[in-house]
Amino acid sequence: MEHPAALAGPPVDWAALRRVLVVRPDNLGDVVMAGPAVRALHHAAPHARLDLLAAPAGAAVAPLLPHVDAVLTASVSWQQLDAGAVPPDADLALVRRIAGGRYDAAVVLTSFSQSPWPAAYLCRLAGVPVRVGASKEFGGAGLTHWVPAPPDAIHQVDRMLHVLERVGVPPAGTDLRLNLAASTRPEEPYALLLPGASCASRRYPPGRFARVAELLSEAGLRVVVAGSPREADLGVTATPDVPGLAALVAGSAVVVCNNSGGAHLASALRRPVVVLFAGTEQASQYAPRDTPATILTVPTECAPCRQLRCPYALECLAIPPDDVARAALRLAASG
Ligand code: SF4
Question: How many Å lie between the centroid of ligand 1 and the Cα of residue 315?
Answer without folding.
Answer: 6
